[in-house]
Amino acid sequence: MELYDAMVERFGHQQWWPGDTPLEVCIGAILTQNTNWRNVEKAIANLQAAGLLSISALLATPHEQLAELIRPAGYFNVKAKRLRNLLTVIHRDYGDDVEGFLNRSVSSLREELLGVNGIGRETADSIILYAAHKPTFVVDTYTYRILLRHGLIHGEDDYDAIKELFESSLAEDVELWNDYHAQLVAVGKNYCKPKAKCDGCPLEPFDHDPLAGTQDYQ
DNA sequence: GACCAGGCACATC
DNA sequence: GATGTGCATGGT
């Protein structure tokens, strides 16, 4: 996949995730579910300003107050619950020590994250790759849409199939996988909208179909 | 005003 | 197992 080289040439190395601490990455991973990152930044800034960027502080905050603070990120009631679900699991065994929670095998961490109500495959993989800095490939709607438009997958390929495609094709390299996903998001944000032409896309057209990718993967 | 944004759980057939 | 729906703000 020389896709990667074309993307790096266009966008430069991305240096993801845009979050200062592992806890912020975990919070951002939940808040950005189906949501523009700009809105997530506002919500995290609210938490920061309220002095709540620690697990025990967040857990001590009533639902209504937490929901109000993260309101800009949308879905604020469900996301307040989802944050609490994750933080409760971490706190139960590790207190405020997020890094302690993250420091284990990918399979163990992924299994526990997926057991949290409100954390699905993309959110779990984002936390593993960008907060724990461990090798797992993150797939999202941009990844799916880009690959579909370029004829590299077909409609029946689901999350795990796409994840496996990358993980089996690339050297196992946390920094590479980190930047690769970030590059795909950059392409998606700038050139791969659901119902728009892809003018200026840095990727070769392959079997380019600008109408593909309007439906989500399963 | 329509469309879109770095998903996920749950109900129903 | 496949499909549909609720959740919600804010930028373009």
Describe this structure in words.
- The chain is mostly helical and about 220 residues long.
- Helices cover about 60% and strands about 0% of the residues.
- The protein contains twelve helices and no strands.
- The structure holds a DNA duplex (13 and 12 nucleotides).
Q: What is the topology?
A:
Elements: H1 3-11, H2 22-31, H3 37-49, H4 55-59, H5 63-69, H6 76-94, H7 98-102, H8 106-114, H9 121-131, H10 141-149, H11 159-169, H12 174-191
The structure holds a DNA duplex (13 and 12 nucleotides).
Short note summarizing the structure:
This protein is mainly alpha-helical. The chain is built from twelve helices and no strands.
Compute the average pLDDT: 93
Low-pLDDT stretches are none
The percent range for helix content is 55-70%
For the termini, the CA-CA separation is 24 Å
Oligomeric organization of the protein chains: single chain
* Strand composition percent: under 5%
**Which H/E pattern describes the elements?**
HHHHHHHHHHHH
User: What coarse outline follows from CA principal-axis ratios?
Assistant: globular
Structural class: mainly alpha
Number of strands: 0
Number of helices: 12
Radius of gyration over all CA atoms, rounded: 18 Å
Largest sheet: none
Features:
DNA-binding; mainly alpha; 12 helices
